[in-house]
Amino acid sequence: MMAVLPVHAQQTEVVAGSLPAPEIEATAWVLMEMNSGAVVTGHNPDLPLPPASITKLMMNYVVFERLRDGDVSLSDQVPISEKAWRAEGSRMFADVNTRIELAHLLKSTIIQSGNDAAIALAEYTGGTEHAFAQLMNQAAAKLELTHSHFENSTGLPAEGHAMSAHDIAKLAAAIIREYPEFYSWYAEKEYTHNNITQRNRNRLLWKDDSVDGLKTGHTEAAGFCLVASAQRGSERWIAVVLGSESERTREQQVLTLLNFGFAAYDAQRAVKASDELVTARVYGGTVDEVTLRPMQSMDVVVPQGQRDNLRTEFHHSPYFEAPIADGAPLGMASIMLGDTVIADVPLIASTGVAEGGWWKSLVDSIKLSTHKLFSE
To answer: What does the record give as the active site (predicted)?
Structure first.
């Protein structure tokens, strides 16, 4: 059997650097490097909290999935129900009993945070908003967002509706990684419907050119919330703040976290899926060696200036017996920083090894018996 990895294998241990982490006054927050999945600092990262309009990231994700699968199209004309028209909070001001292009509604949820647009999309894609919320919960399970539950598509207050800061960061990373064609919409600074132009509520888009998403949220229960991502060079960081005291404070806090990530850590690819890392002896096969490679690429973060201290240790049997299937799990590669294991990646066979003929099998069985005799 093949080894099963999480949705995106992540760094499991972070070594603290010399720069002190910032102090943030909020209910919960995290700072995560996107490619490694490493959370380098945070507070209450797994505490389920009201996420307000950050909920729309999951609503967006489900619609992106349906677009990818061909279940809906950007050009679809989506009806605006009375329920959508009556939505409270932020709106795009969609007129009841009209039809609006799906792409237009989707952009409104991203840029204007339109609750009316979110409900209309949920009803069109899921049949009802309640049914769509179940699709959101299914997507959350697939992404291993274990501290999130959805009751609606908007983030308006509802009992049991919650997300954790860490889950929000992982969801943001999934959107950036899986749907780059839509992620660019999160950087758009304004959008117009019914001759009403509204500005993106993520003010960091104006304050830092490296910030290119994602979403704000605010209700009385949630406080002021913000998840933002920034890319500088090849590094991308994601910061989440939940339960801040004001719009201005959440922006300052998120930018402080992002700046800390870029200043305190280096991100790099430790191994590539295409790397042929090590060979092992094979008995009874058409060839005498099998090459092992990582099951997937692995990115890690290390404190600034410690890249040269990274090394890789390999753990596998000293020999294998044919047949060996292509991609069969054969061991583990441990990414080390000094004496600390910061990530593990399964090793698999780069190519399969078929059984040799009867003579090869006979000769190798004798060699294997001798090997076992002298290794005991």
So the answer is: 53, 56, 113
Note the pLDDT of residue 51: 97
Q: Supply the DSSP string of 337-354, one letter for each residue.
A: ETTEEEEEEEEEESS-B-
Instruction: For residue 221, give the H/E element and its range.
Output: none
Q: How far is CA 164 from CA 60, 102, 230, in A?
A: 18, 29, 20
The percent of residues above 70 in pLDDT, for the chain, comes to 93
Q: 28-265 with 272-375: one CATH topology? A: no
- Per domain, the residue ranges of the chain are 28-265, 272-375
Instruction: Round to whole Å and give the CA distance between 57 and 50.
Output: 14
CA distance 347 to 315: 9
| Rounded Cα–Cα distance for residues 32 and 44 (Å) | 14
Q: Give the pLDDT score at 77.
A: 97
Annotated binding site for substrate: 215
Tell me the CATH architecture of domain 272-375.
Answer: Sandwich (2.60)
Kindly report whether the global pTM for this prediction surpasses the value 0.85: yes
- Tens-place pLDDT, residues 241-266: 999 999 999 999 999 999 999 999 99
pLDDT in tens, 122-171: 999 999 999 999 999 999 999 999 999 999 999 999 999 999 999 999 99
Q: Per DSSP, what are the bridge partners of residue 311?
A: 336
Look up residue 256 and give its two tokens: 């402080």
Question: Residue 151 and residue 206: Cα distance in Å, rounded?
Answer: 33
CB 153 within 8 A of CB 56: yes
Catalytic residues, by residue number, are 53, 56, 113
Among candidate residues 349, 261, 275, the one with its CA nearest the CA of residue 312: 275
pLDDT for the residue 12: 86
Average pLDDT over residues 190-203: 90
Cα–Cα distance between 91 and 222 in angstroms, integer? 19
Q: Which CATH architecture has domain 28-265?
A: 3-Layer(aba) Sandwich (3.40)
Binding residues: 215
